[in-house]
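FORM 7B: Structural annotation worksheet

SECTION A. Query
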Amino acid sequence: MNLLMVGTTAPSHVHPGLAVIAELVRRGHRVTYAVGERLAPLVAPTGADVLAHRSVLPTADEHWPQDVAQARHVFLDEQAAVLPLLEEQARPDAVLYDIGGYAGRVAARRWDVPAVQLSPAYVAWDGYEEDMAEHEATVAAGPSGRRFAAALREWLDAHGVTDDGEAFLGRPSACVVLVPRVLQPHADRVDPDRYVFAGPCPDPSRLTGWAPPPGDDRPLVYVGLGTAYTDRPDLYRLCLQVLGEDHRVVLASGKVDPAALGPLPRGAVVARVQPQLDVLAHADLFVTHAGMGGAGEALWYGVPTVAVPQAVDQFLNAETLERIGAGVRLEAVEPGALRSAVAAAHACAGRVRALQGEALTTGGPVHAADAVERLVTG
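SECTION B. Predicted structure
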């Protein structure tokens, strides 16, 4: 089959599906992957043909809008620019698209071909709209919410899509969920005919062979807040100060210059970016923002978490990790709270190993590619 994948130019949206794309290519499918130029090097090793474009989404050094509707508008601006590029391509047999790649859904309708969403986040459950109604009403009532709704309606009308805007951005017709089912809120209320859980699919090409220096048997704690919400020097200094005596600390500082964190404790390794999968393979604990990618990878590698959610879905992810016994949430950025959270998270190790076994046997790129093939053919 000829497949067109419409991605979102953000590492947290690209990384979760790369191994799935590579598996589809390995099976003989031709995949064309549309993504912003700066992330094209991430996609190229999968064997997909990269359809690179200029992206208006914030880079790792830039900040996302804090206003929810403004952030949604940035995604819309990106997709409005991408759609004409898609329409220049030959008609594929099916379209795959990220949750932010909804130009793919529009293009699939115009071509009259199947469309399957690849979701790196939890999905809507029966009753989701009612549960979120108050939040969505607040977003829609503000000036930015009204501007976004008008712009979305105008864009959909221009391309012959008569669906309600909120419904169009909501439930897909078919979706492969790149999340362990255990991390899905209200999993018992998710439509199994629409959503297929394929669990996390860590990309082997991200492995670098990194290993911690030998000769130090202290537990290894990895501190990483993803790629978007990393401007937290206060948290980084606290982790180095509190954990540096009894743990080996590996810290990804993101937007923060490592030099700004001051003298490092014995054995600490700090850099703006760390090889996350390699580090998790050696880690005993993960201090994380609870983005779904990192949460799923923590289960895949069997690492308990201390969650410090920053934005969007991370708060619910943190609640879910705690509810299933995979870790705890840091309630306050202060020494006593961190020590207590770390001790409680270490105590979750046995439960996390059990969850790891479930993730390894029910998820992965082979499961995800099987689901894609089944959904696009029928």
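SECTION C. Observations
The longest strand covers residues 30-36. Residues 2-201+363-377 form a domain with the Rossmann fold fold (CATH 3.40.50.2000).

SECTION D. Sign-off
Analyst initials: ____
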